[in-house]
Amino acid sequence: MFPWDIMTKSSGLGTFGGVYTPSILTILGVIMYLRFGWVVGNVGLLGTLAIVTLATSITFLTALSVSAIATDRVVRVGGAYYMISRSLGLETGGAVGIPLYFAQALSVALYTLGFAESITQTFPDLNQVYIALITTIGVAILAITSANIAIRAQYFIMAAIALSLISFLLGKPIEPTQIELWTNKGEPFWAVFAVFFPAVTGIMAGVNMSGDLREPTKAIPIGTLAAVGTGYVIYMGLPVILALRADASTLREYPLIMEQMALWGPAILFGVWGATLSSAIGSILGAPRVLQALARDGVLPQWMGFLGQGSGPTDEPKIGTAVTLVVAIAAVCIGDLNLIAPVLTMFFLTTYLVLNISAAIEGFLDSPSFRPTFRIHWLFSLLGAVGCLIVMFLINPTATTVAAIIVLAIYLWLQQRELITTWGDVRRGLWMNLLRVGLLQVGHSEDTKNWRPHILVLSGIPRKRWPLVELADALTHNRGLVTIASILPPGSRDMGQQTDLELTLRDYIEKRGVQALVRIITADNPFAGAEQLVETYGLGAIVPNTILLGDSEEPSRREQYCQMIQAIYHAKRSLIIFRENPERGFGKRQRLDLWWGGMQANGSLMLLLGYLLRSQLDWRNAEIYLKLVVGDPSAAQAAQINLTQMIEDLRIRAIPKVLVSDGRSFEEILHESSAQADLVFLGIAKPRDNFDFKAYYETLQQRVAGLPTTLLVLAAPDFPFAEVLTEGW
């Protein structure tokens, strides 16, 4: 037994067999055998050492991030997918996990085709596709039989690689040479770096075996970092030997130059075959486990749930392995992976990028729940993420863009499905931290440039007065906050029941496509409760600046209703009273009638509300009619010119319409002109001392009776809504 495995449990794979071996075998791969001489020949010895150091640094930083996450929580089946989904959420984990699965599944074909190509170069009479198919089926049988058997097979492969390295070390120069420290005769530095970088991207091979490890929180950090360190030592030594044994042109010309330098040439071939087979085995072991985790978390469609099944006491994903075999065989039959290979590399790097971001966010927030035993500063993880992103664009900008589009599309698809998880993730902590910073930065006084309607909707039970919620959502259109408030009689709910009811109501409105907060309070009567909400609801400087409520037709409650309106106005909140025409609702959402009384106060706010409403999808084709009544025809032409000029200056699409009273009352003109409107905007007089507001409101209700759905608007005092419109004049 290896020393690292002594302190672990009796079942499952240990650090050496489960993490170190698959990781180091993936790192010491075909790039080392077939491209290392080419790298030295193109950029010289010092350039090669710089490339190795830079590339390994990015992998090392990612390994640190992986180690931090792995020592904070139990890492189960799925490896990198499991870590990301439990940190950044199921949508992000799935968006990375699905491409990661296909990348690993197709990588099986990539490696077996490479193995077959090296075989046919040695034995030209053999068929490359048949060799690749047989090899693919062979490694799949190994994986289906047992992960332990596959790991034992990797020990023999490791022995073959070690033999090849020893044979190379004991070899001889093939020609007299002068060491070139730097050379500009070959490919550009970053082009060579892009070719070499996949040689150090093998750390996920061990992480993907997390479900089969005895103690993943110990095995992953030790095994991964040890593999990265071992690979770095070997990669720093090989360029020196290559530079001493052949000149730059020879190194560039012969891909298998190591075979010519080795003490025993066939050992290098064994190493190449071992490297390709070990990478294929690592992929055939890792891909089904990612697929199993995706199915168990419900990321895949429900009918694919059978892919989450495991077999035997070790829960091996034999069904997933069989599916992965089918995918790999299909790719082998195509026979040419040159077009998709760059995209596959991007998916692996995308995984590293997101893992680094996960660790950086967790470390930056320093949540009490994040307590890794292997702790690193979040700046290291951030540096690793930046490095991954830069390398992706250096390797292939087009493939990076394609990979990003695919990941984003999967993320949006999963987000639309509204998957429910039983675990928390870092996103809430991130938003809470941003919210704290934002609240402390926002001033207590609103400014005209950044004004948005933050609406408190006094709707009662939303399903009974849904048009109120619908209107608030349309007015804000993701530009402001909406709070749906209900006021219950005292004793109807205790605090726990109120919280449960708030969650129920929030789920209800979210399922209907509305993003809003929910607030429930108890009060002796709804009017006192409304005043209480207006007075106390909010957080710091973020309070509702606009109150939306329905009209009250009940005469016995009109006194209290009018007192509430006055209290809201004196609290310096804007008020919108919604009078629905139940027979017409919002009509065809094609016409908005705004009865104009000037830019000050109500007029400016009504025009802003009309503009905001029309920016919502359902109202996008609506026309705003700005209506003004004048006493005689002589004033009509000047009024028309003024309205037209004002609309042009305000940059708001509206149709000015000047109406001559010609002896008619405003009420007659209102009903005649707005009979076909879909929504009518009217201003309300300001409550003031020695003003019978109740009598005024009763008159107003009689005036608007029978109109289409109407909004009665009362602008908050002392706020210059006109400046919001004229900003930039």
Give your account of this protein's structure.
With 729 residues, the protein is of the alpha/beta class. The chain has 2 domains: 14-426, Amino acid/polyamine transporter I (Up-down Bundle), CATH 1.20.1740; 448-726, Rossmann fold. It has 27 helices and 10 strands. The chain has helices spanning 15-27, 30-34, 36-70, 80-88, 90-122, 128-145, 147-169, 189-196, 204-207, 216-245, 248-253, 257-261, 266-296, 318-334, 341-365, 378-395, 397-417, 426-441, 466-476, 495-511, 526-536, 558-570, 602-614, 633-650, 666-673, 693-704, 721-726, and strands at 455-458, 482-488, 517-522, 546-550, 574-579, 591-595, 623-630, 655-660, 679-683, 710-714. The chain has a 10-stranded mixed sheet with strand order 3-2-1-4-5-10-9-6-7-8, sandwiched between helices. Strand 2 (482-488), helix 20 and strand 3 form a beta-alpha-beta unit. Helix 4 (80-88) crosses helix 15, helix 5 (90-122) crosses helix 14 (318-334) and helix 7 runs antiparallel to helix 13.
Give a quick rundown of the structure:
The chain is an alpha/beta fold and 729 residues long. The protein has helices at 15-27, 30-34, 36-70, 80-88, 90-122, 128-145, 147-169, 189-196, 204-207, 216-245, 248-253, 257-261, 266-296, 318-334, 341-365, 378-395, 397-417, 426-441, 466-476, 495-511, 526-536, 558-570, 602-614, 633-650, 666-673, 693-704, 721-726, and strands at residues 455-458, 482-488, 517-522, 546-550, 574-579, 591-595, 623-630, 655-660, 679-683, 710-714.
